[in-house]
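Dear colleague,

Thank you for sharing your sequence with our group. We've completed the structure prediction you requested, and as agreed, I am returning the results in plain text so they can be pasted directly into your records. Please verify that the sequence below matches your submission; if there's any discrepancy, let me know and we will rerun it promptly.
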Amino acid sequence: MAATAALPAIAQTSTVTDSRIAHSQDRVAGDSALDERLAQDWGLQAEDWARYRRLMQGPLGVHSPNLDPLTALGIEARTEDERRRYAELQVQVEALRVEKLLAYQRAYDAAWKRLFPTLQPVMPASAGGFVAASGVPSRLAVFVKDDCPPCEQRVRQLQAAGTAFDLYLVGSRQNDAQIRQWAAKAGIDPAKVRARTITLNHDSGRWLSLGLQGALPVTVREVDGQWQHW
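Please find the predicted structure tokens below.
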């Protein structure tokens, strides 16, 4: 009788175990499918992605936790051919990213002209990315703040010289009205803003992320991946 009574309990335990195994298998299959999609997004093979995951679990991931897969694999390339392949893939991926960014910026500019034709456009925070081709100096980036006469003077000098630049207002807190008021006070020509000779941008933490020193205003340009005072 006791053995007979134990049968339902054994059957229940077996069902629970089978359910856990099935769930675990589904999770592994889901992770594998996700890894495959991510690898494809970067133009990588499955073994490349697996190696990237291993690298980011080691010292490289500790020192540089935000490295993208192509940069990580390129840094840790085992042969010159590998290094060249990852570099070429990264150029292709970056070219596509910039193309999409510029396409969106054109759509943004067109929408701004339709909806707010009399206002100076402010670049969306996600679009201000300091885009520059490798080896080619980027546009000047000018970091300024409110209540800063030297900042206004620097911007007036650059504008008078006909220099194209991207202005970043530190501490704007995404307030478009504040940055427009600052631009008007500094005498920035709205026509130059509409023509994108000068762009108005929220700093959005970029000043801190670049790790630059000195009191504002600061004018910098990126050359070969290094930000230099200008």
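Summary note from our side: Residues 131-137 have pLDDT under 50 and may be disordered.

Kind regards,
the structure core
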